[in-house]
Amino acid sequence: MKQQLLTRIHDRTAVVGIVGLGYVGLPLAMEFAKAGFKVVGFDVSTRVCDLLMSGKSHIQDVPSAEVAQMVRAGRFEATADEGRLGECDAISIAVPTPLGKTRDPDMSYVNAATETIARNAHAGMLIVLESTTYPGTTREVMQPRIEAVGLTVGADVFLAFSPERVDPGNAVWHTKNTPKVVGGITPACTEVAMALYGSCIDTPVAVGSTEAAELVKLLENTFRSVNIGLVNEMAIVCDKLGVNVWEVIDAASTKPFGFMKFTPGPGIGGHCIPLDPHYLAWKMRTLNYKTRFIDLASEINSEMPALVVEKVSVALNDDRKAVNGSRVLVVGVAYKKDIDDIRESPALDVIRLLEERGADVVHHDPFIPKFRDDHEGGKDHRERIGVELSAAELGRADAVVIVTDHSQIDYQQIVDDANLVIDTRNATARASRGRARVVSLAASPRPSTSASPSSAGRAKTAVG
Ligand SMILES: NC(=O)c1ccc[n+]([C@@H]2O[C@H](COP(=O)([O-])OP(=O)(O)OC[C@H]3O[C@@H](n4cnc5c(N)ncnc54)[C@H](O)[C@@H]3O)[C@@H](O)[C@H]2O)c1
């Protein structure tokens, strides 16, 4: 079985299936198609399948032209017909792994995908889970279900875990050139999975077990969450000390060893960093261990939107205005710069908290002209239409809050035309003086020359 599959991978006659055609699955499908495989993409969303089959991409990092080319060449097909998975020799699963209401892992998508594959599995198939999950998922959840249809893992079929590391919007590191970790249930599983990924990813990296591969991803994202939590706490420290946090971070970053730059902000978002560490925390709770770093970082990071709103409130107060009734323009609602994804974005919390205090909130985001906060856990089901970043809109706002520092936004225009700017990303640091009073998340973005006495000790600087 193993040799047959290795040969099919080597000569590109293997058919590759991708289950879940989202941010992770679609780029991966394209890599396999470009490497010469026939790829069958399976997604429960017929809307996604229809869109892709018409040659249009719904993922920013994947050009529509690429999808159209692969569809035309017969190398990529998207389908909602699960029976088509039976044609596949290798299947990668990239379905969501969100948290439930109690912040425990929601394994329903992985379970459903596993059942679908088990119903269509055949001898000689490789199955790889890519969805981020807790250590033990592949062996404890997937293996029994696949073996329940009479196929032995390691002999008849091959089962592995390989975490996805895609960084949406990253122009340098993408699916192909980012090293990919692979761990199988047995050495034969690892060998086959390494051969598959080695055919389209520059650097596959083998580890000794599925648990190690699962934990690699959680370590990476916990590392980010903890360091962002640390630097957010440093922002609070600097704010209280009246020290410019950006200056401190930039200076610390000149150390050529032993320091890695992280920057503070309005909170964390996306499908990974706010969620993944909780998968590990949950697993460890079942083993009577409390992951303290994870809990503390999560606590600090999730408090940042409230801190931003407090900054807005204090700054408006300095202008003798209340939040209640003030017009606030939020600039950037994506969870990070230069992408169009609002999942778990701290902007959603900032907007909600401001509105709870009676503010009239509008937004501008070049990547997200309109949105509805109706993802899982979303509270706001209204469609929000963005406003232009015009002199009129900036001047009309009592406060402008920069939440996401998209590269294409004209920050000089903001400081020229706004009255008051709360800058949570240090995005206005390179703008020269304008009309607006700029308030930073943590102490002044540059030496203050005309801060009013009432603002002494608070993060406040006059740019104009
Ligand atoms: N987005 C990222 O930047 C990123 C990075 C690394 C890892 N991950 C992980 O990858 C996994 C997928 O994330 P994503 O961002 O691609 O999600 P996504 O929501 O963009 O895409 C998931 C797709 O799976 C489909 N789907 C759901 N259930 C299905 C089922 N049973 N069968 C077939 N299709 C199904 C959905 O319709 C959707 O199109 C998650 O575990 C995530 O944590 C995401």
What's the short story on this structure?
Helices cover 38% and strands 15% of the residues.
Could you walk me through the main structural features you see in this protein, from its secondary elements to its overall organization?
The protein is of the alpha/beta class and 464 residues long. Helix content is 38%, strand content 15%. The strands form 3 sheets. It has an 8-stranded mixed β-sheet, with helices on both faces. Strand 1, helix 2 and strand 2 form a beta-alpha-beta unit. The longest helix has 32 residues. It is elongated, with a radius of gyration of 24 Å. The termini are far apart. The C terminus is likely disordered. Bound molecules: nicotinamide-adenine-dinucleotide. The site of nicotinamide-adenine-dinucleotide (NAD) has 28 residues, from helix 5.
What is the overall number of helices? 14
**Counted beta strands:** 16
Order of strands, main sheet, comes to 3-2-1-4-5-6-7-8
Ligand types: nicotinamide-adenine-dinucleotide
The ordered string of helix (H) and strand (E) elements is HEHEHHEEHEHEEHEHHHHEHEEEHEHEEE
Defining key terms:
single chain, 38% helix, binds nicotinamide-adenine-dinucleotide, 14 helices, alpha/beta, 464 residues, eight-stranded mixed β-sheet
SSE layout and pairings?
Blueprint: H1 2-10, E1 15-19, H2 25-34, E2 38-42, H3 46-53, H4 64-72, E3 76-79, E4 90-93, H5 108-120, E5 126-129, H6 137-147, E6 158-161, E7 180-184, H7 187-198, E8 204-207, H8 210-241, H9 245-252, H10 276-286, H11 292-318, E9 327-331, H12 346-356, E10 360-364, E11 370-373, E12 380-385, H13 391-396, E13 399-402, H14 411-417, E14 420-423, E15 437-440, E16 461-462
Parallel strand pairs: 1-2, 1-4, 2-3, 4-5, 5-6, 7-8, 9-10, 9-13, 13-14, 14-15
Antiparallel strand pairs: 6-7, 11-12, 15-16
Helix pairs in contact: 1-7, 5-6, 8-10, 8-11, 11-12
Residues 19-25, 42-45, 48, 94-97, 109, 112-113, 116, 130-132, 164, 166, 168, 271-272 line the site of nicotinamide-adenine-dinucleotide.
